Amino acid sequence: MDHLAHWLRTSSFTVVFTGAGMSTESGLPDFRSQSGLWRGKDPMQLASTRAMMENREAFVEFYQMRIQGLLSCKPHTGHECLAEWERRGLVHGVITQNVDGFHQEAGSLAVAELHGSLAKIRCLACGTEYANTRYLEDQGTICACGGFLRPGVVLFGESLPQSQVDQAISWTEQADLFIVLGSSLTVSPANWFPQHAKERGAKLVIVNQEPTPLDAWADEVIQNERIGSVLQRVGRR
């Protein structure tokens, strides 16, 4: 952690990449573990464009459950550390696979959400956005215009939002320090960003409970530690 603290202080452009492990520390389930959201379920039947059009009742129930879970949790110390580091000019961008909106809730402003956000829902017909709590109300899936309200996340069958991808690429190409927090780095394009940063000369730090395929590329690997605790301790150095 001394290395990470030194690199953070001396970096001219630091980018942080967060995955499901960042959210699980707030109490949210991941997707693919033994207790994850996909255990015993078919994602294509619940979280795809096809499900939204052809299996709407199950689709809505699934996202109502996810929103209820989201509202019962909050950002943790790690989110707060990153927001504070941004305010101090130590972090210049956060790229996240997560859809919980906790980075923004903690105070981070420079956030690229690769998979969209569950903090908002929007109308398929007119595009009007609402707070996610509307999904839990009676008739909460119907817009004022009569259109269907969908969560603001990327569904299976949809492309990642190009503006967010472009922002993530821009930050990655400027990074001289790239920190991965809580990502297995087994899913594309997640594993592309740290790889690309490293190829362009950035220091690469990976903080994750389990080994990742890019550990051999990393300048520092921290395992079996809670992200919030790691960032707190780095901040004190």
Structure description:
Strand 7, helix 9 and strand 8 form a beta-alpha-beta unit. It is elongated, with a radius of gyration of 18 Å. With 237 residues, it is of the alpha/beta class. The longest helix has 16 residues, at 56-71. Helix content is 37%, strand content 17%. The strands form two sheets. Strands 3-2-1-7-8-9 form a six-stranded parallel beta sheet, with helices on both faces. 38% of the residues are buried. The mean pLDDT is 93. The protein has ten helices and nine strands. Residues 1-237 form the Deacetylase sirtuin-type domain. InterPro entries: DHS-like_NAD/FAD-binding_dom, NAD-dep_sirtuin_deacylases, Sirtuin, Sirtuin_cat_small_dom_sf, Ssirtuin_cat_dom. Zn(2+) binds at residues 123, 126, 143, 145.
Question: Which terms summarize this structure?
Answer:
237 residues; alpha/beta; six-stranded parallel β-sheet; three-stranded antiparallel β-sheet; 10 helices; 37% helix; elongated
Count of DSSP helices?
10
The main pleated sheet reads as: 6 strands, parallel
**How many β-strand stretches?**
9
Helix content: 25-40%
N-to-C series of helices and strands: HEHHHHHEHEEEEHEHEEH
**Overall form:** elongated
List low-confidence stretches.
Answer: none
Distance between the termini: 9 Å
Helical/strand content category: alpha/beta
Q: State the strand order across the main sheet.
A: 3-2-1-7-8-9
The percent range for strand residues is: 15-25%
On the 0 to 100 scale, the average pLDDT is 93
Radius of gyration: 18 Å
Binding site for Zn(2+): 123, 126, 143, 145
Keywords: Metal-binding, NAD, Transferase, Zinc
Protein name: protein acetyllysine N-acetyltransferase
Domain Deacetylase sirtuin-type: 1-237
